[in-house]
Design brief:
The structure holds 2 protein chains of 2 kinds. Chain A is α/β, with parallel strands linked by helices. Helix content of chain A is 35%, strand content 27%. In chain A, helix 3 runs parallel beside helix 6. Helices cover 73% and strands 1% of the residues of chain B. Chain B has 11 helices and 2 strands. Classes of the chains: A alpha/beta, B mainly alpha. The interface between A and B is medium-sized, with 25 and 18 residues. The site of magnesium ion (MG) has 5 residues of chain A, from helix 1.
Chain lengths: 228, 285
């Protein structure tokens, strides 16, 4: 499905990704874990073309995405839910969903079913929403593009535990969608993902199924700095 | 009574300033380019009308036809402008200022060559060249009506349509919009074209109010810049309120304290900015 090989990128002179490589089996959710600043956001931004790849390859199905611009990558069916949510501040929930909606099985009504609290706020502007509502809106915006590949960058960041739980349920219900989920919240990551990859200094150094990862507390400690 | 007349003049002038400034503020919000050629576009509209119909009154239909011609000219010039500024995206504001100022000089000198360097003014079209309610010039009322109609249409498009939502999204976060598969470049081009067309249209509307002459471009540009700084950048509401405020200040100032009018404008701008540094409707980022 998605095959990333020897991907390097960075900002100006500063290289962040060092030959990052991963495979995402079709219809699976993979969690990308790693400490602050290892390059997780840079990785998903490079996949989306928001950061230009310096070298390496990003193959989605039969398509090579490395070198395309962001809009072309989006047209190939990739969508991102960015870190910090980045909802359109001056658009209402309804407007945001309307301009993001493309042909396919995801409709605005279905997004409201997934996130009922968003439906209740449909007339509110992006900058009037709570963090949790903004996250739901950012996810809805991405889903309406009917993605072949969905990138989620720390959706739980800054949200209350109850909201994170609601997000977890929603994301788990996306069963069958190909997802890369960047997370520092281990609970959410293992609840949603089928497999786990850990990143250190811009490379992937660990891969396991979620079940294996659960039985391997040393990995969590080493790559995330948490005990369990 | 005469103060009331002056206040009405201020509204008419404010409406004219809105038509000019709304494009300037949206182009800045969307492209991060301060188009210093905007005053020259206004001037192009006025001189185009002067070259076509001269200074004699025409029928309303001819006047409207000339206004539409100016809109077309604005679209063409806007196309040229977007080609010219494309290589400068992501360069500093100074480069863009130099480029658009250079274009402004080229355009205004060209117009003065084709016409001449004297003073000219358009005549109000027949039917609007009389006065209303005894003594108030009908054409000024027409400018107010046209300005309000254009403002209303702009608001409606911007706030109520899908196209307007796309433009606002492109101001808020162009990267995320592109990441939804939208062609942000096309949205930017549309806004440049619309903004430039409104500027040349303003030039025709203002032809019977402000004399056509050398230096007109910088004069209206400075006013439009004050409007958008006072109103808050990239805000249509801000452009509307700023235009009405500056229209009043300018007209009242000229009528009451002519020797201080220019200072008054800057004093008002300074006062607004001290009170709200991002302008009336600006975003405090
Ligand atoms: N726009 C940028 N310009 C320059 N350097 C950047 C930029 N964004 C990130 N960096 C640097 O790149 C490195 C990786 O950052 P990145 O945001 O990818 O890390 P991350 O793993 O997502 O961190 P976090 O968990 O805090 O979100 C960091 O050293 C960061 O300082
Ligand atoms: Mg990050």
């Amino acid at each position: 499905m998605l095959t990333v090989e020897a991907l390097t990128s960075g900002y100006g002179q500063g290289q962040v990704l060092h030959e990052a490589a991963m495979e995402l089996p079709p219809g699976k959710a993979v969690a990308v874990l790693g400490r602050n600043g290892v390059g997780k956001t840079t990785f998903v931004h490079t996949l989306m073309g928001l950061v230009k790849p310096w070298s390496g390859s990003i193959r989605l199905g039969d398509d090579e995405l490395a070198g395309l611009d962001t809009r072309q990558i989006a047209r190939h069916g990739v969508r991102i839910v960015p870190q910090g949510r980045r909802v359109y501040r001056s658009l209402t929930v309804e407007e945001t969903l309307a301009i993001s909606s493309g042909p396919g099985e995801w409709t605005i009504e279905r997004v409201y079913e997934l996130f009922p609290s968003l439906a209740a706020r449909r007339g509110h502007r992006g900058d009037q929403l709570s963090g949790g509502e903004q996250e739901m809106l950012a996810i809805g915006r991405a889903l309406l593009g009917n993605p072949r590949l969905l990138l989620l960058d720390e959706p739980s960041e800054g949200l209350a535990p109850l909201v994170v739980e609601e997000l977890g349920r929603a994301l788990s219900s996306l069963e069958g969608m190909s997802i890369i989920l960047v997370e520092q919240n281990l609970h959410l990551a293992v609840a949603v993902a089928d497999e786990v990859r850990c990143m250190v200094k811009g490379s992937f150094v660990y891969q396991a199924t979620t079940a294996e990862f659960r039985r391997d507390p040393a990995a969590a400690k080493e790559y995330l700095g948490v005990g369990s | 009574m005469s103060l009331l007349v002056t206040a009405f003049d201020g509204i008419a002038f404010g409406c004219l300033l809105f038509v000019l400034a709304v494009g300037l503020t949206m182009i800045f919000g969307l492209l991060d380019v301060l188009n210093l050629a905007h005053g020259a576009l206004y001037m192009a509209g006025g001189y185009l009308a002067f070259l076509v119909i001269g200074e004699v009154p025409t029928s309303l239909a001819v006047f409207i036809g000339v206004a539409l011609l100016a809109v077309v000219a604005g679209l063409v010039l806007g196309g040229g402008l977007s080609v010219a500024i494309r290589p400068l995206t992501r360069r500093g504001h100074l480069d863009q200022a130099l480029l658009t100022m250079g274009l402004a000089i080229l355009l205004s000198e060209f117009l003065l060559q084709v016409a001449d360097r004297g003073f000219h003014s358009l005549a109000a079209p027949r039917g609007l060249d009389g006065s209303i309610a005894g003594s108030y010039p009908a054409y000024r009322v027409a400018v107010i009506v046209a300005g309000l109609a254009i403002a209303g249409a702009t608001f409606w498009i911007f706030e109520r349509t899908r196209a307007g939502a796309l433009v606002r999204a492109a101001v808020d976060d162009p990267e995320m919009l592109a990441a939804s598969g939208v062609n942000v470049r096309r949205i930017r081009l549309s806004v440049v074209l619309a903004g430039c067309a409104l500027a040349t249209l303003a030039g025709v509307l203002g032809g019977p109010l402000l004399n056509l002459r050398a230096g007109l471009d910088t004069e209206v540009l400075v006013l439009a810049l004050i409007v958008i700084v006072v109103g808050g950048l990239a805000s249509i509401r801000g452009a509307a309120l700023g235009a009405l405020l500056i229209g009043q200040v300018q007209t009242l100032g000229v009528a009451l304290v002519p020797e201080l009018a220019a200072y008054l404008l800057f004093a008002v701008m300074a006062a607004v900015l001290l009170w709200r540094p991002a302008g009336l409707f600006g975003r405090a980022t």
